[in-house]
Amino acid sequence: MKKIILFSLVLLSFLSCKKDKKIDVIKSFCYWKTDSYFGQEEDSLAKQMKLKHMYVRFFDVDWNPYAEEAQPVATVYNIRITDGLNITPGIFITNDVLLNSSKPQLDVLSERMAIRIKKIIDKYQTEKATALAYKIADADYERQKGNAFQSRLSTDSIIIAEKPKFEKDIQELLFDCDWTESSKDNYFYLLEKLKSKFPNYKIASTIRLWQYKYYEKAGIPPVDKGLLMCYNMTNPTEYNTKNSIGTSDELADYITHDTYPLELDIALPLFSWSVLFRGGEFKGVISEYQEFEKSPTTFKKTDDNKYTLQDDIQIGKFYARNGDEIKIEKISDEEIEDMIDIITEKVKISNTTKVTFFSFDKKYINDYGVQNISKYYESF
Asked: What do you get for the CA distance between the two ends of the chain, in Å?
């Protein structure tokens, strides 16, 4: 009897220690806009959530059918992000690029991409170092008002001359592509070329859910780490789709094993959109939805997440008509927590795991709430 009691106490002690063991994941967000300039409100939100990292879109790569070559497009050159955040540049590559490019064309593309990436990093680092120089110089000015100009000039020279190396703020590059079976060879070839041009950086690739589940068919990209994209699971153009951003049930259908051979970071949805239908036919995705609830005479609520228009109206770039239906798609707090439970059951999570939410936008963050978002991080 004494042995049984002793065993029970040891077991309870073990389970208690296991439960109390805390994993501090790296708190991250994805900032995927054409303008990467933080204002005071964005700075405040990042600091409230104690963010340590951010994926920042640098540019896209698309296929130009007229030039018959892949070209970098929509480049972001002006980047101003909250101090103290490490950033990972993100480059999106369309599948058309891989399907249409020859190996020699991919050689040229990798060179062009490398030049552009280095140019943006250099500009970002130089401007950051210069801003730091002036910040220190301003503090020095307050201390030495008698000789302010000369003090500032000398401080600038010292700080700029000792600007931080790239690796201190940027240690990783992320390439985002929904490759297919027919394009994986070209994608993996391009990744190898890019790795050779950035030997001092870790190289990461996004991993879509189907690529995770069927990795033997999809292939494993030749990278240091993957970013598992746990959203956009179904097609928003389908009228009967429950929620194209995702549900925990659908996520469970994809994360069915724990044998993926790459270390993974995690990306979860923290956004919403509205889908416009006319006679059951998809017409487009509308990013705004708050105004629908505020105008009940124009938008008649017909279900928990559906509205029917009562008039012809322009919504953003869409000309909506009387009778059109708008379906709001958003992940609830409960669904996010359920998704986290599914992920942590199958995917190895450690103190080096970046948990990132898409996307960093003050309207989404304020909608979900800083406290709720902080709780999501803690759930890992």
From this structure: 38
The confidence score (pLDDT) of residue 140 equals 55
d(CA 65, CA 62): 9
Q: Could you give the residue ranges of the DSSP H alpha helices within the chain?
A: 2-20, 40-48, 95-100, 103-143, 148-161, 166-169, 184-197, 209-213, 215-218, 248-254, 290-294, 333-346, 362-368, 370-378
Question: Mean pLDDT, to the nearest integer, of 49-60?
Answer: 96
The pLDDT score that the predictor gives to residue 18 is 44
Q: CA 21 → CA 15, 264, 350, distances in Å?
A: 10, 21, 11
User: Which pLDDT belongs to residue 59?
Assistant: 96
What is the amino acid identity at position 59? F
pLDDT score recorded for residue 44? 93
Strand 299-303 to strand 306-309: parallel, antiparallel, or no bridges (unpaired)? Answer: antiparallel
Q: What DSSP line would sit under 34-68, residue for residue?
A: S-EE--HHHHHHHHHTT--EEEEEEEEEEEETTTT
CA pair distance 230, 217, nearest whole angstrom: 19
DSSP 279: T
Whether 313 and 298 have beta carbons less than 8 Å apart is answered as yes
Omega before 8 cis (within 30°)? no
Residue bearing tokens 């201190």 = 168
Over pLDDT 90: what percentage of the chain? 67
Return all residues near 149 (Cβ < 8 A) that are at least 6 apart: none
Question: Hey, what amino acid is at 44?
Answer: S
Counted residue by residue, the chain has a size of: 380
Contact of 74 with 33, CB cutoff 8 Å: no
Computed on alpha carbons and rounded to an integer, the radius of gyration of the chain in Å comes to 24
Give the pairing of strands 69-73 and 53-64.
Answer: antiparallel
The sign of the dihedral angle between the CA atoms of 176, 181, 186, 191 is positive
pLDDT at 160: 39
Tell me the pLDDT tens digit for each residue of 243-290. Answer: 999 999 999 999 999 999 999 999 999 998 999 999 999 999 987 655
Structural contact between residues 254 and 215, judged by C-beta atoms closer than 8 angstroms: no
- Tokens in use for 256? 């069915």
Nearest to 45 by CA among 376, 371, 311, 378: 371
